[in-house]
Amino acid sequence: MRILVVDDEPIIRMDLVEILLENNCIVVAEASDGETAVNLARSIIPDVTLMDIKMAGSINGMQAAKILIEEEICPVVLLTAYHQAELIEESTAIGVYGYLVKPIKESEVYPALKVAVAKWQGVQKLKEENIDLKNKLEKRKIIEVAKGVLMDKYDMKEKEAYRKIQKLSMEKRMDMVEIAKSIILSNEVASL
Fold first, then answer.
1. C-alpha–C-alpha distance, residues 131 and 28, integer Å
2. Which residue range forms the structural domain that includes residue 22?
3. What is the pairing mode between strands 48-52 and 2-6?
4. To 5 degrees, how large is the angle CA 31–CA 34–CA 39?
5. Within this chain, do residues 93 and 134 fall inside the same structural domain, yes or no?
6. Taking the model in full, what pTM does it have?
């Protein structure tokens, strides 16, 4: 795992890096403030960011986490000395993938990061599948409209219209959607 470690306290950052290295992780970068963390993450694209919530600077850890998640750069596991309900609610609302309270137990760091990465990958895969399904549905809609045109214009049955589009697709060596678009376009031009 490639990890960006962000904490404004150098000793804590050093301890975190040591814990991660002992677990065969790669620390790709370190930062002491949210703005630097965001810029590093944008350029490096780590697998996960381990970040303190309260840090000095123009962007705190919570704000930086929100940016990284919204821009779909990487999952974020937050570190904090605070376990107030408001912070937990806010981190949940922005979609943080983990929340560790200081002082952290070494045995909890790696599993939290591993789970965060796995969840992130699952969400990304679902988003890709969703886009793929939307594209397939749009293509299907275009073919349905073209079938309707053929059925109306040439008094064809549904199966016959579909086979006609399929046959033209094979003959012209074009995708069925492109054939369907041509049928729809020629019908629109004819009706002008």
1. 31
2. 2-104
3. parallel
4. 75
5. no
6. 0.79
